[in-house]
Design goal:
Layout lengths: L3 H8 L7 H4 L12 H16 L11 H19 L6 H19 L9 H11 L1 H16 L2 H9 L8 H25 L6 H21 L2 H18 L3 H13 L11
Helix pairs in contact: 1-6, 1-9, 3-4, 3-5, 4-7, 5-7, 7-9, 7-10, 9-10, 9-11, 10-12, 11-12
Length: 260
């Protein structure tokens, strides 16, 4: 897969962008639905960290299958926007999920290979294993937007401290990087039509939140990248239009520096 390492680097770890804002927004009393995924993540991490003799889990492995099932299920829960979100808890969960990706990318680090070459090789070798987690990253970065936005909108000007504004910036940057990475993935013809459609459909579902989170410069960059990808890779034009429309017609408020 051409330049897959570049695409993976855009998305792995970017969900941590929500973490700086996580201390700003109050958590709801009853977060919904994250326990099965948390359990699946810890089970797989325990195995990967303690049973290195078994090698990395590959497609068909029951523990990896469970992770894929749970990131898909909880991703749908987050995308529905009906679940109560505990932002600090979600941030921690997303960090643990992305740590699994990191373990795949850095596997074989004892080999005498430059870091970039090692990670590029692993990104291609293990792409099927980490692809569901990459998609879940979009939910990690977009789900906290409305809650953090509402929290900051309720603050007086003197309460908009540097730490809070920096947290908002990290939410913006994390989501912008996530969206750019997914556009790059969707533009890769080797990904296959079904997965390309899946990536674009995920972006459609979150496009309005992307528009509410990105500043003007980020919006321009994302929309230009989307248009170029659509021209170069023959993407589904209806889905591309829906993504662009969702981003263009939604406006950033307290998450953007020009409207602090």
């Amino acid at each position: 897969m051409t330049s897959v390492f570049l695409r993976i680097c855009f998305v792995v770890g970017l969900s941590l962008g929500a973490s700086a804002a996580s201390n700003q927004a109050a958590a709801p009393p009853n977060p919904v639905g994250s326990e099965p995924l948390e359990n699946a993540v810890e089970l797989l991490l325990e195995r990967m960290e303690e049973r290195t003799d078994l090698g990395l889990p590959r497609m068909g492995d029951p523990d990896l299958n469970r992770l894929h099932q749970e990131v898909g299920a909880y991703g749908k829960t987050l995308a529905s926007r009906k679940a109560a979100i505990d932002v600090p808890r979600l941030s921690e969960l997303c960090g643990r999920v992305n740590y699994i990706n990191t373990m795949y990318l850095l596997h074989g680090g004892a080999e005498d290979l430059p870091a970039a070459e090692l990670q590029a090789r692993n990104a291609e070798k293990y792409f099927d294993e980490i692809y569901p987690v990459i998609l879940f990253g979009l939910h990690c970065t977009s789900a906290p937007v409305a809650q953090v936005e509402a929290f900051m909108a309720g603050l007086s000007p003197d309460q908009l401290t540097s730490a809070r504004l920096d947290g908002a910036k990290m939410v913006r940057n994390g989501l912008a990087g996530q969206v750019k990475g997914l556009i790059m993935i969707a533009a890769d013809a080797k990904l296959g039509a079904a997965r390309r459609q899946e990536v674009l459909s995920a972006l459609v579902a979150q496009a309005d939140l992307v528009g509410r989170a990105l500043d003007r410069t980020q919006k321009t960059e994302v929309l230009e990248m989307l248009a170029e990808a659509a021209r170069a890779a023959s993407l589904d034009q209806d889905l591309v239009r829906k993504i662009a429309s969702g981003i263009e017609t939604s406006h950033c408020t307290r998450l953007c520096p020009e409207t602090p």
